[in-house]
Amino acid sequence: MCLRTLLWLAVLTSASAQVTNLRSIFRDGTIPDPALQPEYDFVVVGAGSGGSVVANRLTENPRWSVLLLEAGNDEIFLTDVPLIASLQSITGYNWGYKSVRMKTACLGLVEGRCNMPRGKGLGGTSIINFLLYTRGTKKDFDEWEKLGNPNWSYDDVLPYFIKSENCTKCNEIDERYHGKNGYLNVEHPGYESPLVKQFIKAGEDLGYKNVDPSGRTALGFSKVLATMRDGTRCSASKAFLKPITSRPNLHVSIRSRVTKILIDPNTKQAVGVEFYKNRRKHVVRATKEVVLAAGAINSPHLLMLSGVGPEDVLTKVRIPVIQNLKVGYNLQDHMAMSTLAFLLNESVTVSDRSVQNPVDIFNYLLNGRGPYTIPGGAEALGFVQTKLSKVEDYPDVELVLGAGALNGDVFGSLRSLLGIPQGLFDRVYRPFMQVPAFSIAVVLMRPKSRGRVVLKDGNPFHWPVLVPNYFEKEEDVKVMVEGIKMAISISQSEHFKKYNATPNPIPFPGCENTPFNSDKYWSCAVRQVATTLGHQVGTCKMGPNTDPDSVVDPELKVHGIRGLRVVDGSVMPNVVAGHTNAVIMMIGEKASDMIKKEWGCK
Fold it and tell me: Which residues form the signal peptide (predicted)?
């Protein structure tokens, strides 16, 4: 996003006190830092989509004290602007994780490594993601239950999705499946390019209906729903923490880096946590439970640092083994081909250049309307089945219509997020920087490949080693290729003919010697430039104690450890066929009820 645009926003922010009807984008004050107590009933580690929900729901009981620890800072107004979501990846709100070099994926990206963004701040990844609200499918959760997790079927979890949600400004939804009284605001963007209707019509030509993907069936095409409130980002923090800052039984401590969960090796009882704040070491005790909600990378990392993990790994780095579990295994993620650009003959798209005019800026700030409300540039979704799908009514690919494409990324925030090298950009996209273009991202919904989070050493300030093994299974590449062919067919449909939509004709580096537009070419391109959506899950797998790969039981309690639960995306046995943010909030809602039941509070 253009520095000039950001300066415009900053200038308008400073003038906001003189504008009586300026929108509530600037309304949120910071959460005050508390005077820490030596012990709390519950200590929650991580203020992301799971931790924020748990902190809210547990403090509904005024007799319980809760400490919420977050390594990052509070949000600022720039994190609120949906269109510039990709900008957050180059700020301190992103942990900045990268994978190891692999032979199967990210071959053409910076350093040959995959960026693996994870949020660092109040709200976690919900302050850097693209705000898209979907839930996965009925089959996803029914499969969780079949894997030995009772009460995790779709019928069991649906009430918790509804409980969280406030969808009072939604349209084109199946209201039976949505809530209107929850903390989490969900709405459609305040802008729609002409491409949206054409995209949905093209989907109908392929046999897909215009549906609500969070309704009865996920298969179909739709406008996006986003976690927004009046055109601004509604993060987990804004939804679940800011409204309850006055609760005296909730303490939120930011810039607090947890380094260890304290577990009595004899009783195997979690008794508290160790963390660093202002370069000082602190210890707090939890009289009831420690709730680990640090995410699919940091949660397994902390468990291993605390003596819970694979015995061979912990022994190698000289960490005493308290419980031998397969922590860090089962890493899953949604990979996406976000680099497709379709060139047009008419300026109906959105780019860094097109949104620099003052009218759009004022329209956004004063009315919550205009292109700045597009969540990360995503305008519409299509959940589809390729010819390789073997399960009826179960999408294996998602198609995401983008209001712009990489050739419009003049100032580099999107390519920084994806890890696109400057040389690749100059070669493939720079020749078309003056040409309007849109994108259709192809997302692999049900990957077969599995990766791992590995402990590097015993230093808690060293990152873990991330081995995601993207596209290790050839089947994943084949599904992506079929999805790319569907995206191209949509762009070539009669609905886009008036725009003369043309795929970018310049081949990706590393694939020049392969016949362009062939299956072999797209297989090469997927391995070169496909990137993650940041939906890492599965590393603390939920399952019964008879499952040797599981880390937590169906109540999210760590096997063999008392007083310790994991409440984030790492507990998912399988990644859902949808975006994960709403699912993690659902997990937080359900976990809160399980904790309340455990401790005699209904």
Answer: 1-17
H or E element at residue 309? strand 308-309
User: Could you read off the pLDDT of 286-298 as tens digits, one per residue?
Assistant: 999 999 999 999 9
> pLDDT, tens digit, for every residue of 373-398?
999 999 999 999 999 998 988 999 99
What CATH number does the domain located at 136-228+333-532 have? 3.30.560.10
Instruction: Tell whether the model's pLDDT for residue 194 goes beyond 50.
Output: yes
Q: In degrees to the nearest 10, what's the CA dihedral of 330, 336, 337, 343? A: 180
DSSP state of 255: S
Q: Which residues are annotated as a binding site?
A: 125, 258, 569
Question: Beta strands of 1-59 (E only): which ranges?
Answer: 39-45
**Model pTM score:** 0.94
Does 535 participate in catalysis according to the annotation?
Answer: yes
Does the annotation count 579 as an active-site position? yes
Binding-site residue set for FAD = 125, 258, 569
Query: Are β-strands 308-309 and 378-384 bridged in parallel, bridged antiparallel, or unpaired?
Result: unpaired
Could you state, in order of their start, the residue ranges of all structural domains in the chain?
136-228+333-532
Sign (positive or negative) of CA dihedral 344, 350, 353, 356: positive
Of the residues 188, 301, 559, 579, which is catalytic?
579
Which of the following is catalytic: 188, 301, 535, 559?
A: 535
